[in-house]
Amino acid sequence: MKIREKLILAFSFITILSIGSVSVLSITKSSAAIKAEMENVLNSAVEEKVSRIYSYIYSKEKEVVFTANQQLVGEALLDLDNAFSHGAESEQYVKRELLYREQLSQIKERLNIYDLFLISSDGDIVFSVIHEDDFGTNLRTGKYRESKLAEAFDTASSLLETKITTFEPYSPSQFLLSGDKVKKEDTTNNIGYEQHSAFVAAPVFHDDILIGVLAMQLSDYDYFHLASDYTSLKQTGEVVITKVIDDYAVVIAPLRRNPEAAFNMRFKMGADKAIPIQLSATGYRGAGVSIGYENTSVLAAWRHIPELKWGIVTKIESKEAFAIIDQIKNVLFIAGLGTLALAIFIGRVFSNHFSAPILRLHEASERFTKENVVTTDLKTQASDEISQLSRAFVRMQRSHQENLASLSVTAEQQKLQTRYAHAKLKIVDALAQPVLLAERLKLAIESIFEVPGLDIQKKGGVFLADENEKRLNLCCHPGKFSAEFLRDEATVAYGACLCGRAAESQEILVSDSCFSDHRHEHRWDNMTEHGHYIIPILSHGTSEQKTLGVIFLYTDINPCAGSDRLMLLKEISELFSSAILQDQSRQAAENSVRVKSEFLASMSHEIRTPMNGVIGMLGALQKTELSEDQKRKATIAQTSASSLLTIINDILDFSKIEAGKLVLEELDFNLRGLLGDFADSMALDAQDKGIELVLELTGVEQTMVKGDLGRLRQILINIVGNAIKFTSSGEIVIRAELHALEEGMFDLHCSVSDTGIGIPKDKISTLFDSFSQGDTSTTRVFGGTGLGLSISKHLSELMGGKLEVSSTLGEGSHFIFNIKLKASKQSEKVFPTVDIHNTSVLIVDDNDTNRDVLRGQLEHWGGIVSESNCAADALALLDKHYSPQEPNKPPFSVAFIDMQMPNMDGEELGQRIRADNRYNGIHLIMMTSMSSEENTQYFKALGFSGYFPKPATTSDLFGALAVVLENNKAPSDIDTLVTQHYLETLSHDKESIKGASILLVEDNRINQIVALNILESLDLIIDIADNGEKALAALKNKTAYQLILMDCQMPVMDGYETTKAIRQGIAGDEVSNIPIVAMTANAMKGDKEKCIDAGMDDYLSKPIDVNELENIIIKWVKAKP
Amino acid sequence: MAVSEKSVVDATLMAIDEINAKGGVLGRHLEAIVMDGQSDPEVFAEHARTLIQEKNVDVIFGSWTSASRKAVKPIVEEFDNLLFYPVQYEGLETSPNIVYTGATPNQQITPTVRWGVTNFGQRAFLVGSDYIFPRTANLIIKKQLSALKSLTVGEYYIPLGGKNVSELMKVIKASDADFILNTINGDSNITFFEQLQEHNIAIPVISFSLAEDEVQLIDADAITGHYSAWSYFQSIDSDSNRQFVNAFKNKYGQHRTTNASMQAGYLGVHLWKQAVNYAQSTDPAQVKNAVNGVTIEAPEGRVIMSHVNNHLWKPLYIGQVQRDKQFKLVWQHKNPIRPIPFPRYRTIASWNTYLNSLHRQWQGKWSAPVVPNKALL
Fold this sequence. Notes:
The complex is a heterodimer.
Chain A: H1 3-68, H2 71-84, H3 91-111, E1 115-120, E2 125-128, H4 148-158, E3 168-169, E4 196-206, E5 209-219, H5 221-227, E6 238-245, E7 248-251, E8 266-268, H6 275-282, E9 286-291, E10 297-305, E11 310-317, H7 318-321, H8 323-370, H9 378-431, H10 437-448, E12 460-466, E13 471-476, H11 483-488, E14 491-493, H12 497-505, E15 509-511, E16 531-538, E17 547-555, H13 563-622, H14 628-658, E18 667-670, H15 671-688, E19 692-699, E20 704-707, H16 709-725, E21 731-740, E22 745-754, H17 761-764, H18 777-781, H19 788-798, E23 802-808, E24 812-823, E25 840-844, H20 848-860, E26 864-868, H21 871-881, E27 894-898, H22 906-915, E28 923-928, H23 936-942, E29 946-949, H24 954-965, E30 978-979, H25 980-986, H26 990-993, E31 997-1001, H27 1005-1017, E32 1021-1025, H28 1028-1037, E33 1043-1047, H29 1055-1063, E34 1076-1080, H30 1085-1094, E35 1098-1101, H31 1106-1119
Parallel strand pairs in A: 19-21, 25-26, 25-27, 27-28, 28-29, 29-30, 31-32, 31-33, 33-34, 34-35
Antiparallel strand pairs in A: 1-2, 1-5, 3-4, 4-5, 6-7, 6-11, 7-8, 9-10, 10-11, 12-13, 12-17, 13-14, 15-16, 16-17, 18-20, 20-24, 21-22, 22-24, 23-24
Chain B: H1 2-21, H2 41-53, E1 60-61, H3 66-78, E2 83-85, E3 98-100, H4 105-120, E4 123-129, H5 132-147, E5 151-158, H6 166-175, E6 179-183, H7 188-198, E7 205-207, H8 212-215, H9 220-223, E8 227-230, H10 239-252, H11 260-279, H12 284-290, E9 295-298, E10 301-305, E11 312-321, E12 327-337, H13 348-361, E13 375-376
Parallel strand pairs in B: 1-2, 2-3, 4-5, 4-6, 6-7, 7-8
Antiparallel strand pairs in B: 5-13, 8-11, 9-10, 10-11, 11-12
Helix pairs in contact in B: 1-11, 2-3, 4-5, 11-12
C-alpha cells in the first residue's frame, strides 16, 4: 500500500470512529432521556385518569349512601313497599307512587344517573324512575336475579356494603326508552353489547332496622369522555379503557383514532399485540415500550381499576415519541458522511503535498546525478508544504465550520417555524377571546405584528365584507392612521384600490410600494412609502367561496413574496375566516333566540290575563262560607295557580332578559325592612323543616336606598328558597352588607349560606345555565322552571353586580351576590328610637350564629351584650352579675331567650328567672322557631315582655326594645305582650282608608269581580265603569272619588286616552288631578312609562296582589289632602 | 401473642432472604434489623422510633395487635416512614404511612356471617376477647344479623388471655344458638374449645382469629369440625402456596405451620420490593406512593393494592378443622374482595366517635381492663 492510500485510510478510520462514538453516545443518552420524559408524561396522564375514575366511583358511592339516609327515601320505601303488596297496578300503589315520584325524579336528575330504584328488603323493585322491564320484579327470585342490579342489592342488603358493580350489559335497559319497543339494532356493534350499566346500592334503615335498598343505575356514557381527553398526549396519543370479556381484552370506550372502537375492538388474551391493553385488563400496572393494538411499537403506561375490572392505558406511537431521535440520527448521519468525505479529500490533498516534495526530491536527485543540476529551492518548497498543510487545516476547519453553519441554519429555520407557530397560536387565542368580534380581530391583528417578517410597521387592519352592497367596511385598524384615512376608508367598494381588488379577485396581493403600484389608487398627503400585504378572508368548505373580508398589513417596501410567506398569510386568513364565520352563526343564533323570547314573552302575557281571573276568583271564593272540604280544595287550587303563575313569571322574566327587554325600576325603599319582611316570609318554610333562618343586617347602616326592590326580592326568594329546599337540618344564614361606593352609590353585598346537601363540583358550572338542552338535570333540580337561578344571575348582573356560588358536597352551599343601589334622598341612618347605649342585654341561645348576629346588631347600637349558650350557664351568669349592694338593679335590662334549647328550654328558663325576685327588673323576650300566635297569652302569663318568631328582624328588635324600655316601666307593668303582630298594629293605616270612594274602570267582567271583592273587603266604596267614556261620565256625576283604578286596554276608549281626557279637564276641573293608578296585564317596563306619560300616577300589574293593591290605595288615598 | 408474632417475623425474614438470594433490590442487598416489641404497645412505639431515627430503616414490617399498630401509627406518620401491617383487623383506620396487608371486616367477617346464617340457621351467639377487634367486629356482625333477619342470641366477652369460661358455657347452653361466631384471641381459645367439648356443647363455632398455629395446641377431639375464616390457609391447593409452605418448612422445620398473618407478612415484603422497583428508590416517601395498584400473585392468590386506601384486595376462604389439624376448604371467594375499612352505613366521623368512646371507656387503652365479666343477653 502506498503512503497516500494509507493516509486516506487513516483519516477515514479516525473520522468514523469519533463521529460514530459521539453519535451512539448522544443517541443513547437522548433516547433514554426522551423515553423517561415520555414515560413520565404517560404515567401522569394515566394517573390522572385513574384518579378521575376513583373520584367518580367514590362520589357515586357517597351519593347513594347519603341519599339512602334521607328521610324521604326511608318514608317512600316503607310506603311504596306496603302499597306494592296490592300490586303495581293497584290504585293504592299508583296513588302513593305519584306522591313520591317528583321528588325521587328530582334526586335522579340531580345525581345525573340513569335510573334510581327503591327495593324492598325481600328484593321487590317497588320503585323505578324510568320504569323499565325490571320494575316490579324480584331481585332474589325474578328474571333479573343474575343481574348486576341484583348483585348490588345483595351486597347492600346482606353485607350492608356499598360498592360499585362492574359495568355490564343490562337487558332491561337495552331499549332507548321504556316505551320504545324497537331494539337499537342499528347501533348494535360487532361484539353485541349496546349499553353497559353499573349499579351502586346502599341499605336503607328505619329505626336501625333494614327496610330495603336504594340503588342507582349508572350509564357507560359517564366514562366515555375520559377516553377522549388526550391532553399532553401529542398527535398519536390515545387513552384506552378496556376490560376482559370472555377471554378477550375488549376496548370499551371510543378511541381517538377510532370513535367506533367501543366494543368493536378486542384482542384475544395472550395475543402478541395490544400488550399494554392485555396487561392492564388483567390487573397489572406499568410503563414502557411495548406492542400496541396496531401491532406497532408504542410507548405506554397502564393501570388496572379492580373496582370496575377495567384496564386503562395511555400510549403514544414510538414513532412519534422517538421522532426526535430519528431526526438526531439523520442529522448525525449526514454530518458524519460529510465529515468523512471531507476527511478523504483532505487526506488526498495532504498526501499529494506530502508525496510531491518527495517525488520532486527524487527528480532533483536524478537531475543532480544525471545532469548535476542543483535544485536550490527545496527548502522553501518544504516550508510551503507545511503552510499547505496548515492551509489544508484552515480549509478543513472552514469546511467544518460551513458544515456546522449549515446545521445551524436549519436550527434557525426551526426557531422561525416555532415562532410562526407561537404567533399563530396567539392569533387563535386572540380570536377566541370572549369579546366582540371587532375587538377580537384587533387583538389578532396585533398578534400578527409579532410574526417575524410582519413585525416592522405594526400597522394594519381588517375590512368586513358586505356581500349585498359589494363593499368593505372598516372593522378595526390597530396602528397609527391619519384622520383622513379613517374618514375615506370607512367603506371601500369592491374593485377599488388594493383591498377592493383583493375582495373581488380573492387573491393575496403583494404591493411593493404605494407610490409605484398603480393599483394603490387611494392616496393621502404625507403618505410615506410603504408596501402591503392584502389578504382576502374567504369562507372555506363551501363550493363557492365568499369573501368575508380583507386583512391589510403595512410593510416596508418590496416585501417578501416567497411561497412560504404567502402560505403563512393564507393560514392566518383562514384563522380569521373561522372566527368571522363563527360570529356570523352566533349572531344568527342570537337572533333566533330573540325571536323565541319575544314569542314567549307575548305568550306568557296572554296567559297572565286569564290567570288573573283564576287567582282572583279563587281568592274571592275563599272568603265565602265554605265547607272544610271545599276550603281545602280551594286552597289547593290557589296554591297550584300561584305556582303556575310563578312559573309563567319566571318564563316571562327570562324571555325579557333574553330579549334584552328587562328594564329595572328605581324606587325608594327601606332595605332593612325589605330584608326583614323577606326573612319573615321565608321563616315559616324554614321552621317547617326545623332549620334555623338567621338574618344578619349589622352591615346595613343605611336603611333607605333606591333601586329595584322587586327584583332584589326575586333574587333572594330564588336563592333562599333553594337553600331551604336542599337543607334538611342546620341553618341558613342571610348576611347583608351595604358599602358606600362613589358619590350616591352603594354596593349591596349579600350572602346566603346553608348547611344543606351542597352541589357537586361538576354541576356548579352549569348551575346558572337556563334550559340548555344538553343537561336539564341541574336546572330541574332547582325548582319549577329551573330558571330561578339563571334569572337571579342575570338580574344581579343587570344591577351592576354578580352572583357566585361555592359549595362543598354534603356540607352546604354559599351563594354570594352583589348589586348596585343608589342613595335615596330619604336616606337616614338606623337607630332605635330609644337609646340603648349602656343597656345591658343577655342573649341565651344554643345556636352560635344566632347569638353572633344578635350580638353584632345590639352592640352596634351601643348595647352591652353578654351571651350564654344554655340555660344553666345563663342562670349562673345572672347570679354573677347580680350585685347585693344594689338590690334593685337587675343584672341585665333585657334578656333575649331562645325557646328551643337542649336540657332546659327557654320557657323553663323564663320561669326560673321570674321565680327569683332578684331578677324582677329584667325584661324577658322569647325568640322561638315555632310560630304559634295562640301561645302569646301563655308567655305573657309566664312573665315574658315580648315574643318573636325567629329570625328576629331589625324592626322586631327596635320595636321590642322601644316598647319594653320606654318610660322605664318594670316588666310587670307592661300589660301587652310585644309581638310582631302588636308592632304591626302600632303603625296601621288600614283604618285611614275606610270609606274612601274609588272608581274602577275595567271592561272585563271577571276582573271587575276580582277587584270588587278585594276592595270591598277593605271597606271601600266602589263604582265601576266599563270603559273610558263611562268613566268620564261617572266623574262628571260624582266628584267625590279619591282614586281611579284604570285598566289600560278597553274598547271604545282605552285607559291612556281616558287619563289624558281627565287630565285635560274634560271630566271637570275638580277631578283633573285625581290620582289614577293603572292596572294592566302588560308587565313590560315600557308599559309603565306609557301609563305615566299618559298622566297616570302609579301602576299595578295583573294579576292583582291583594297586599299590593291595599298598599297602593293607602298610598294614594292618604296622599290626597 | 409471642408465638404468633414470632411466626410472622420468620415469614418476613424468609421473604427478605428470598429477595437477597435473587440479587436484592436496585442492586442492593436488604438488611433486616429485628426488634422485639414484647407484645407491648409502648415497646413497639419506642422501637419504631429507634428504627427510624437511629437505624435509618426504609421500611418497618410488623406490629400484631391493633393496640401495637395504633401505637406505631403516629410515629411512622411523624417521620413519613412506612409500616407494613400483616394482621386481619377491625378496620376503621387508614394511614398514608401504613400498608395494611391483612383483611378488613368486609373481607373476612361479613361474607362469613352470611355463610353461617345460610348453613346453620338464624340464631347466632357472639363470643370474643374484650378488646377493640372483637368489640368492633361484633358491632358490625349484630347490624348485619339484623339485616339478615337473624338473631343475636348472646354476646359475651372474656378478658384478653382470660381462662375462666364456666359462666360462658352456661350462657351458651341456655342460648339455643345455631352457631357461634368466635373472636376470642390467643390461648383463651384452648380453654374455650376444650370446655365446649367438656360441656358436650355441639354447636358449630366459626372463628375469626383461630389459625393453624393455635389449632395445633388444642385437643383434636375438641377442635375437629369447627370452622375458621381467613384469606389464607396452609391447605390452599396452588403451586405458589406449595412453594411457600415448602420453603418455610425447609427453612424452619417440617413441624412448622403457616397461616394467614405469616403469609400477609411474607407478601408484604414482596409488595414492598415491587414498589421500590417501580419508584426506583427506597425512600419511604416515594415508595408509599408507588405501592398503589401493585398486583402480585401471593400464596393466597392474586392480591391487588388498592389505589385509594392502602389496603389489599384479598380472597376469602372458610375452612373446617380436620383431625390432622389442617383446614379443609369448604367455601371460597377466590376473586379478591375490595377492602372497605370503614363500613359505609356510618360516617367516618361517627366511627371515630365510636372508637374514641371505647378508648375513653377503657381508660386510654385498646382493650378492656381486666375485671370480672358480665354476660350480655
